Description:
mainly alpha, globular, Growth Hormone, Chain: A
Amino acid sequence: xxxxxxxxxxxxxxxxxxxxxxxxxxxxxxxxxxxxxxxxxxxxxxxxxxxxxxxxxxxxxxxxxxxxxxxxxxxxxxxxxxxxxxxxxxxxxxxxxxxxxxxxxxxxxxxxxxxxxxxxxxxxxxxxxxxxxxxxxxxxxxxxxxxxxxxxxxxxxxxxxxxxxxxxxxxxxxxxxxxxxxxxxxxxxxxxxxxxxxxxxxxxxxxxxxxxxxxxxxxxxxxxxxxxxxxxxxxxxxxxxxxxxxxxxxxxxxxxxxxxxxxxxxxxxxxxxxxxxxxxxxxxxxxxxxxxxxxxxxxxxxxxxxxxxxxxxxxxxxxxxxxxxxxxxxxxxxxxxxxxxxxxxxxxxxxxxxxxxxxxxxxxxxxxxxxxxxxxxxxxxxxxxxxxxxx
Length: 391
């Protein structure tokens, strides 16, 4: 498949914010926060729990706003505007993480929550752009290419950080805390450089009709969608399944390093493991796009043991189900379910960890959510037919 200019712009936004995803969310900031919290007298289990609660609160804010924001973005030329509104504050505040004194662990969490809001909100509009840049027949491959290039971009940004880590701050030029702050600067610059094409030139092809009062009309459209929800039963049941199985994926991203530190894994080894995971996710994301073309995206999701493939094909599967002119509104619901799962998972891990005193038991408690999501997804064709018969 030949990828056109608009699709490359879209794909490289995933490359762009992947630096934030791996360096801030997954790899460096959790370890940095735990070190700062430990110096302030916070126990390891409590700092892990606080990290989980911060992730949950940040995603809660976006979750509550997601359907309305999505509806607002469906008007002509609105997606790119809203993408910029959320992305630029997130970039600036990511730089702010590097400027904040290391002793201020409460403010560190607060700034992180704000960056999560910008990052997650921006991804809502980025995801909904998929229906504008790719027709149904190309959506699996384009979505998979986005996730694959995102993982590769994250690997390269991560290697820059590792160069500082393994050379002890470029032969002493940076302190241990300075290396962490350097990674936040990398994440912000990476985001600006590679996100610029979509932020500046992203084109929206599908939209609802322009109105005089978009806010009032968006509330009205949301009310209609809820009122006629029976028309979208297949979409609804897919979102229920997605809510459960994506929970495990998102929680792995946000909690893995904190749990690894609690298990006594050395920081350098932890970073190398994360690098290998990112490298593996890159080709497997592309592989699942190819597999979906050869079989179907539903079949590929069922065998989606690779987190990149599972994420990519869930997005494209949903994009093929929804009405294109209201894609942002429906991706708002997609994101609210994904974000609510991201709230539930870290809270479960935090509570079970504090209750048992073992991070590994907290992580293991997530397995039931994968099982529930799989069962509902397996039953999806039958549930859709039953719903249609009732209508």
